[in-house]
Design goal:
The structure is a homodimer.
Chain A: H1 24-54, H2 64-67, H3 69-91, H4 97-128, H5 137-161, H6 167-203, H7 205-208, H8 213-237, H9 252-255
Chain lengths: 257, 257
């Protein structure tokens, strides 16, 4: 927390706008945001190249080509879009809050849709090929993640986007919304790591241990996801990067002070 | 943050003692601590039962029985002891700070020693059986976790336990010490989940998908680790459970106020 600056909170219990001048710490934030986007795009490129080049590409016909949508859509949805949704309040510090909220909501529903299509691709592939569903630790943790995420999305929207919730409920629920948001994000990255591990052992078990290029690529994808998650978590939790209220968003009783 | 209570920080940038009366929120903390210890003990019991009953027990002879120390010691060290080390400042709120610091350090070095022995068991087993080292995503992320943990341990001890670091360095470094502490903890749980997935696919690939009891046991172990990590993360980050200075630990200039 920068000394001498007292953050103002609004009825969501979070800063409602941005009234800082650009400080050196803000420049660090911008650099980190650039690094995060580069890591996210790299992860998507790697998962696409892996599935397209090594795993036969894409289709929607019950074959392994249908399954390939699963890792691609999970990385796009539960990692890249979800991570960027977390960051909206840091990236658009100086925009009007309702707009940032709507963007946060839209990114999260896009993430949820991607993850649901990714789930359907897997179940479809399993059912078409007589493979059992929901037996692995990856599937157990993954299903819990998607259910928690859907709950979080419904509760978050009904509390913060729709106008029904009272101010004290918004304030009371905010620490939980934030905490579960980050926990679900961390769990979704852990689920990706298990999924990558599974897929490599199902497909290239014979050559993985002799450092096959496919294995190295997927390992690098896993590390990229971990780095992406670490940077998002850092930006989301650093105190002095929390969004501060815009001058026009400050409650009247505070402007009297 | 309880309204009207202004937390005092000392030269570590964290609360230095506990001067709260027991509030309802403190009782919730105690209940959660009980749940965490129960989950931790359950995880250790499950990993021991798995390796002893299904995987042939323990030895130190280069066989799979030597490998079995790896999951057991990682769960004990990088999850149970590490998680409890994070919690020391919450559990022993009303104890003198130096004692809590020493306990935090002792638990972390115990965790580090367990994890190093666990690594040796794996490398020993691999080398004795002509299995390649360090090819899997589990091993890549896992080695990074242990290296980051060792670095964090050295930096933490030299900054906060030894008397050389100046007050502003202690204050400056504390948010990073906390953030990396939790990131390393989350990464170690994710590494466990990958390790469990790997071991099941190496051993019971044929029966895992027909819901073999061993697979269900290990899946439950994985979920227990996730729950343990989630609760530890919650207690460690909830603002109003941070340790507050004991009356005698408050700096003189603050007691004048």
């Amino acid at each position: 927390m920068e000394p001498g600056h007292k953050p103002l909170v609004d009825d969501d219990g979070i800063g409602a706008g941005y009234s800082y001048p650009r400080t050196p710490s803000m420049n660090v934030l911008l650099v980190l945001l650039g690094v995060i986007e580069a890591l996210g795009v790299a992860a998507i490129a790697m998962v696409c190249y892996w599935t397209a080049h090594y795993r036969g590409g894409f289709a929607w016909d019950g074959t392994g080509q249908e399954f390939n949508w699963h890792p691609v859509f999970m990385v796009v949805g539960m990692v890249f879009l979800y991570g960027n949704a977390i960051l909206t309040y840091r990236v658009f510090r100086d925009q009007v809050k309702l707009g940032v909220k709507i963007l946060h909501t839209v990114l999260q529903i896009a993430a949820l849709i991607f993850s649901i299509v990714a789930l359907v691709a897997t179940f479809d592939f399993h059912n078409a090929n007589g493979i059992a569903n929901m037996y692995s630790l990856h599937s157990w943790v993954g299903l819990i993640v998607v259910i928690l995420f859907a709950l979080q999305w419904v509760l978050g929207m009904s509390t913060y986007l729709l106008p029904f919730a009272s101010r004290w409920i918004r304030t009371l629920f905010m620490p939980y919304h934030r905490f579960f948001g980050l926990v679900i994000f961390a769990m979704s990255i852990a689920t990706c790591l298990m999924g990558l591990t599974e897929k490599l052992l199902f497909t290239i078990n014979d050559t993985y241990s002799s450092f096959a290029p496919e294995g190295i690529l997927v390992n690098c994808l896993g590390l990229t996801l971990v780095l992406f998650g670490g940077f998002v978590g850092y930006i989301a939790t650093r105190e002095d990067w929390k969004r501060q209220p815009l001058p026009e968003e400050q409650p009247i009783n505070m402007s009297i002070e």
